[in-house]
């Protein structure tokens, strides 16, 4: 039964590790709750509508308020495609600034 | 129970005999799970945080439209708006974009309003007088400035301001404030050369959340040129963006997923002569069909369960301890000014279960099903 | 003496109705008596192996009846057939059919794994048998590293572990030299002394010429040509 014990031990260790990770995640969320509530009141106070992830274009900085005619974007719940939506930055062609 | 225990033991012996093959399968399986769950973890964490934050956004943002474009909105609208039943607080917002040619980055300039006075995630304070400003972490880092430093913004000879930084937004609020420059309304209007009777847009609170769409309809009727954007639409947009980004990455990994599926399919549709022979031997020496299937079940469980758990652990470490280094560029996208922040460890147990049922269960099935045919045939084949 | 196994007009047809139809065994009626050593003799292709498989419940006959301990097993469902196979028979295959990569110990105990037998009892039984077959020193060795004679002894040990009433051996000396074949026969006679019924399918004269063989059934083209009680 040696191998079974070894396997069971391995699985128990992994499950325990996952449980610890999950608890640390939960406690992390809990610990950051005050920070979150500060940020939430910041959103309220500053009347923020968008997150500052993609700052390259109007419709990516404020996807929720994009123009109707922004590329591929004809609906407030539609999504961004270009350029901050792309994976890589635009290329630098002949030393031109992007 | 004795019998079951020994079958598990034997399953482990069987796997140990083909160490290299089984380890390779488990390694590939683990990596696949790690990649898939990294994507799910990261997207879920971003999405949850974003939606939780933006849930506090104004109920309605009213834009003025002209020629299909977003235009500055006349502040005189406010008087009419306050007459609409159900409308609560109405606030004009003054803000705009500024492309900083020095750093090749876009900043968002925003006018200070009294309601912002007590915003907490800030080192220093909000601007109190003309010529002062508070900047986001990203702006401060990119321009290499801090509190008490000056920051000069220019759009031409007439339109420029020199601002003293009196506050920087904290790094952990970067998701909201990274590219912000908050200055006084007078400075902003002067800098952008905005007409005195116009604002960028107007936020409207609604007393009863259930009436939001009705209020929006009334506004549309009163101002046919305007475009009310509801908080619901805003949240839906973000929900979609993150789902879409996660989906794009999943598609990029489609090759890997497909390869794995082909591998599982290959396993499911045929077992090799050696395995068939072994099943025959087991049957010949007195194992029942159900014992053989149990053996194959455990072989599948051992490989897939340990891979699944390993993959989850790897994914968790990758996303929440190493900030998703391998996936972040793809998942978050690209910007000159990109917020540096750690994703909040929001985890969706449901997603983990879905992943379990989409990977472990088919793998185990692929181990058991093909053995079925070999296990129900007569064992005398081993005599030939 | 009573018959452990009795067949009545047993036939086995492979690929029935197809172009390559083979009538491997055809209308065989034999009796195998308890406590005897019976030899199924005949050239290759005479149907001895198929018949051995049939009486060992490894496959079912196309026609006819097979009685094991007085019970007709020809029409038994698979599950019961397995039980009969496990409780009554121990097999020694021509190619030994050991599971490669496992130790002697694991190979010998394999038939008992799915049973409810107690672990300690299982170990004790295995140790006894290994000692009898002089394999004790080899118990932890991978079977792939053993010589042919040793592998066969492991196969015999595996056939004995579930304490069967009947031991079936298919061409047991095909891969052994004379010395090892003699060793094998010594083991078999010893088992026979302990009261086991032995059935050996072979075309090796070394075996069927031995004086202690009780019963020789000669087969040709799937049928019994001659049965001699010696």
How many structural domains in the coordinates of chain B?
Answer: 2
Largest interface summary: A-B, 65 and 84 residues
Radius of gyration of chain B from the CA trace? 31 Å
Low-confidence stretches of chain B: none
The structure class of chain C reads alpha/beta
Number of helices of chain C: 7
Radius of gyration of chain C (CA) equals 17 Å
Q: What's the assembly state of these chains? A: heterotrimer
Uncertain stretches of 5 or more adjacent residues of chain C: none
**CATH topology-level name of chain C:** Rossmann fold
Mean pLDDT across the residues of chain C is 89
* Cα end-to-end separation of chain C: 15 Å
Q: Could you report the average pLDDT of chain B, rounded to the nearest whole number? A: 88
Give the biggest sheet of chain C: 6 strands, mixed
Overall tally of domains of chain C: 1
- Specify the CATH homologous superfamily of chain C: P-loop containing nucleotide triphosphate hydrolases
**According to CATH, what is the class of chain C?**
Alpha Beta
Q: How many β strands of chain B by DSSP?
A: 14
Number of alpha- plus pi-helical segments of chain B: 13
């Amino acid at each position: 039964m040696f191998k079974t014990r070894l396997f069971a031990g391995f699985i128990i260790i992994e499950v325990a590790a996952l449980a610890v990770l999950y608890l640390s995640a939960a406690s992390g969320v809990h610990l950051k709750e005050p920070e979150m509530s500060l940020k939430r009141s910041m959103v309220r106070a500053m009347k923020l509508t968008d997150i500052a992830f993609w700052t390259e274009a109007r419709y990516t900085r404020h996807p929720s308020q994009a123009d109707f005619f922004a590329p591929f974007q004809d609906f407030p719940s539609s999504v961004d495609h270009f350029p901050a939506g792309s994976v890589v930055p635009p290329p630098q062609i002949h030393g031109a600034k992007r | 129970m004795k019998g079951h225990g020994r079958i598990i033991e034997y399953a482990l012996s069987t796997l140990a005999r083909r160490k290299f093959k089984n380890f390779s399968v488990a390694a590939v399986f683990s990596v696949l799970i790690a990649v898939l769950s990294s994507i799910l973890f990261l997207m879920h964490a971003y999405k949850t945080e974003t939606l939780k934050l933006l849930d506090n956004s104004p109920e309605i943002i009213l834009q003025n439209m002209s020629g299909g474009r977003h235009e500055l909105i006349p502040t005189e609208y406010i008087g009419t708006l306050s007459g609409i039943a159900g409308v609560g607080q109405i606030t004009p917002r003054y803000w705009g974009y500024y492309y900083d040619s020095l750093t090749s980055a876009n900043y968002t300039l925003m006018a200070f309003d009294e309601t912002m006075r007590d915003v907490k995630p800030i080192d220093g304070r909000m601007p109190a007088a003309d010529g002062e400003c508070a900047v986001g972490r990203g702006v401060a880092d990119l321009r290499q400035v801090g509190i008490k430093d000056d920051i000069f913004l220019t759009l031409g000879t007439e339109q420029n301001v020199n601002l003293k930084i009196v506050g920087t937004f904290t790094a952990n609020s970067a998701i909201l404030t990274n590219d912000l420059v908050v200055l006084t309304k007078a400075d902003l209007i002067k800098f952008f050369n905005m007409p005195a009777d116009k604002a960028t847009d107007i936020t409207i609170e609604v007393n009863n959340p259930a009436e939001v769409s009705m209020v929006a309809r009334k506004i549309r009727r009163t101002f046919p040129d305007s475009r009310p954007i509801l908080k619901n639409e805003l949240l839906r947009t973000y929900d979609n963006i993150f789902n879409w980004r996660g989906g794009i990455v999943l598609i990029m990994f489609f090759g890997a997923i497909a390869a794995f599926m082909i591998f599982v399919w290959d396993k499911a549709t045929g077992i090799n002569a050696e395995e068939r022979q072994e099943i025959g031997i087991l049957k010949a020496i007195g194992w029942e069909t159900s014992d053989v299937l149990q053996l194959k079940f455990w072989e599948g469980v051992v490989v897939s369960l340990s891979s699944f758990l390993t993959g989850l652990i790897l994914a968790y470490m990758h996303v929440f301890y190493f900030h998703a280094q391998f996936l972040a560029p793809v998942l978050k996208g690209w910007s000159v000014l990109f917020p540096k922040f750690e994703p909040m460890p929001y985890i969706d147990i449901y997603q983990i279960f879905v992943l379990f049922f989409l990977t472990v269960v088919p793998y185990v099935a692929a181990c058991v099903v093909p053995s079925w045919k070999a296990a129900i045939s007569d064992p005398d084949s081993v005599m030939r | 003496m009573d018959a452990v196994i009795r067949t009545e007009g047993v036939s086995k047809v492979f690929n029935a109705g197809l172009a390559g139809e083979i009538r491997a065994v055809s209308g065989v009626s034999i009796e195998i008596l308890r406590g005897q050593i019976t030899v199924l003799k005949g050239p290759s292709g005479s149907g001895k192996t198929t018949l051995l498989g049939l009486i060992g419940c490894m496959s079912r006959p196309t026609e006819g009846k097979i009685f094991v301990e007085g019970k007709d097993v020809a029409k038994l469902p698979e599950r019961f057939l397995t039980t009969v196979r496990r409780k009554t028979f121990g097999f020694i295959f021509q190619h030994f059919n050991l599971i490669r990569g496992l130790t002697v110990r694991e190979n010998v105990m394999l038939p008992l794994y799915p049973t409810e037998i107690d672990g300690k009892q299982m170990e004790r039984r295995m140790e006894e048998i290994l000692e009898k077959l002089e394999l004790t020193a080899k118990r932890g060795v991978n079977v792939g590293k053993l010589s042919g004679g040793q592998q066969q002894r492991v196969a015999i040990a595996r056939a004995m572990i579930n304490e069967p009433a009947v031991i079936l051996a298919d061409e047991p000396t095909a891969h052994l030299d004379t010395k090892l074949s003699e060793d094998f026969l010594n083991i078999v006679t010893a088992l026979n002394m302990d009261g086991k019924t032995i059935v050996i399918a072979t075309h090796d004269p070394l075996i069927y010429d031995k004086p202690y063989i009780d019963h020789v059934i000669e087969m040709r083209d799937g049928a019994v040509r001659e049965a001699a009680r010696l």
